Amino acid sequence: MLKIAWSDCYCHPLPANHRFPMEKYELLPEQLLYEGTISTSNFFDPGLPTEAMVLRTHESAYWEKLRDQKLSRSEIRRTGFPLSRQLVDREMTIVHGTTLCARYALTHGVSMNIAGGTHHAFTNRGEGFCLLNDMAVAAHFLLDQQLAGKILIVDLDVHQGNGTAQIFRNDARVFTFSMHGARNYPMQKEISDLDIGLPDGADDHFYLKILEVNLKNLLHEVEPDFIFFQSGVDILATDKLGRLAISRDGCRQRDKMVLQLSKENNIPLVASMGGGYSTNIKDIVEAHANTFRLAQEIYF
Questions:
Q1: Would you report the helix, strand and coil content of the chain in percent, each value rounded to 5?
Q2: Residue of 184, 276, 196 whose CA lies nearest to 236
């Protein structure tokens, strides 16, 4: 069964003029339930992780300031979110969701988080709508519990996974692969194990050809026994922040490629949804929904 992390706190309200589309976290599960792709039995509410799990990835000084809501104004501004207790709980729940998804993926082959993909969170700071790095916390959990020995992070959000790259820059057990807009945020890139910067206006054919070659090479050379997939849909041509020219079908083919190759190679995979900032919320929800539809089709 496809197990999906979701909680009411994912829909934590933001000011009406905020550009982060929180409504997708409510609309996406509703759409998947309405069309019959999943049932309520597919969902689980993650709850909160222990502080020890967070501190395995994030520095104590940063975590304590975040927990106690004592970040400076500049630190808060860098995250893009107004800081609150509810926001911290939301970030913690997302982290635990991806960690528990990793356990489910070991049993079922795949598991998914309705939220997550918070790849701009560093060991010592948050930025770009990311406060805690869910994939990094979950990866550390698998490694520490000896449930995985070599992890591949496939980050296909339009923005480089700079926080994830920083966290694992000295850890050979985790290979970070980020394919993103070369001229997009962040302007100052970190160094992943493999970075592919795409030109503005890259289309479906160009994008999918590059991804296929590199992903197949990585599966052969890295030989991962677990994959975390950051499946941001801000690669869409309709995205306000994306600057690429990928169609909804191209985005779907991207997800199919990642999921199909993982299944064929018997590598458990967790997908976190990542970004999406199209003007029409329908474009965001449909592109994300395709990831779940494909998971059901390919694995179950």
A1: 45, 15, 40
A2: 276
Token pair 């222990």: residue: 50
* DSSP annotation string for 13-40: ---TT-SS-TTHHHHHHHHHHHTTS--G
Strand locations in the chain (E): 3-5, 43-44, 110-113, 151-155, 174-181, 194-198, 226-230, 269-272
Alpha-carbon Rg for the chain, nearest whole angstrom, is 17
Residue with tokens 């490629």: 257
Contact 216, 258 (CB under 8 A): no
Residues 152, 158, 161, CA angle at the centre, nearest 5°?
45
> Average pLDDT, whole number, for the chain?
96
Alpha-carbon distance 159 to 234, whole Å?
Answer: 8
pLDDT at 278: 95
Distance separating alpha carbons of residues 153 and 92, to the nearest angstrom: 20
Structural domains in the chain? 3-299 (3.40.800.20)
Cβ–Cβ under 8 Å, residues 121 and 132: yes
The secondary element (H helix, E strand) that includes residue 66 is helix 60-67
In the block, residue with structure tokens 């049932």: 39
Q: In this predicted model, what pLDDT tens digit does every residue of 160-214 receive, in sequence order? A: 999 999 999 999 999 999 999 999 999 999 999 999 999 999 999 999 999 999 9
Give ∠ CA 160-176-278 in degrees, rounded to 5. Answer: 30
User: Phi/psi of residue 106, each to 5°?
Assistant: -65, -30
- How sure is the predictor about 17, in pLDDT bands with cuts at 50, 70 and 90? low
Look up residue 28 and give its two tokens: 């996406």
Token representation of residue 126: 């948050």
